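ok here's the first one, seq then struct tokens
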Amino acid sequence: MHKHMVRIGLLATLNIAAAHAAEPLELDGVGISRDVPCNGHDVNITGNGNHIRLTGDCGAVSVYGSQHRVTLDSAENLGVSGIDNQVVAKGHVGGLVVDTSDNRVEATIKAATPPARVQVDGAEQVLQLKLESAVEMEINGADHQLDWSGEEPAISTSGVGHRIERRS
């Protein structure tokens, strides 16, 4: 009986630890500056004017709010929503969604299982992308600027005033 109770206690502890490990890292504030190791976690950045450096491999990274400056090593997926955010991914990003307006993103897109998906909505987004796998892009809205290099993507567009150019 005692061994059975110890096993149940151990399993409960492992389940709690697994649930805790699955929780995203929440980085919320105004004007904070932090270096944060991802350790495979999803990360949510919210607020205004934060300077965040994410190190290591991240799960899904979501940037909400305005005037954030974010650098990251790599992420399974990256979402940027808000106004005047700047995000630089130094390694690979598996997929990308950018919306609202005036966001700037630099990233290398490489899906674990191609094709990678890139979706851009809103207005006046500026993206510099290096494509290292098959990519499907959907560009909607107004006045987006996309400079890309690497593999030829499949691109669909709607809206007005987009500038989409291949860099060498």
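and now the second one, same deal
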Amino acid sequence: MIDKNTQEKIEFSGIIRSVQPRSNVWRYRLDNRTHSMTGYNLFLSGTAEGEEGNFAVAISEKQMLKHRFHIGDEVRGTAWTKMYPKLEYADYYRAGGLKKLSEGPDLDEEAREPWTGELPELSVYDWRGCRMLDSRSWKGKCFTCKWACMANVAIEYNWGVTQKFRFESFCYGPKNCKQYKMGKPRAVPYKDCGSVYDEGWLDEICTENRDDEE
């Protein structure tokens, strides 16, 4: 078993179950929730480190634009294990040698709820902004949606001194999606002050660029 405090280059292969944007989120009480798009996550069923199972591999926007990965594609490549597991949701990152072995079914660009068409560039996600998404919805009916996202979150716990880390699910999809559920308000702790709760009004600020149908 690989020591999680070190990194090793591994080989992987599998069938894509979902492709989602990858982002980092910085939280500071209720004063700030900043989202930074960093690439995409490929969720696969296949083999990694010589073991079969489901796993996620982080790739860059450049790699995504080159290969146009989508659900059902069979792919292989190399990647690296994580040095700091609490900072990165994907099981592997720094992917390389990517190759699409076979194409999945043709994309249905009219499909909605979930939206499973071709993923847009990261600038589109950045412009749209996102809302909190119930974690059970992310794991279930929203998992294959191109607007779903599991983000790496850093909480400023003691300004400039310490941070806390976790993963949170978000939705970049249309506000009128019938399957959308926000889930429970999310606690944002700060040293010696307890927690305040993000109850959704930050979602309105993050998505103010668009209307209900966008």
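notes on #2: Strands lie at 9-28, 32-48, 51-59, 74-81, 92-102, 131-132, 148-158, 162-171, 186-190, 194-198. Helices lie at 61-67, 122-128, 135-139, 201-206.
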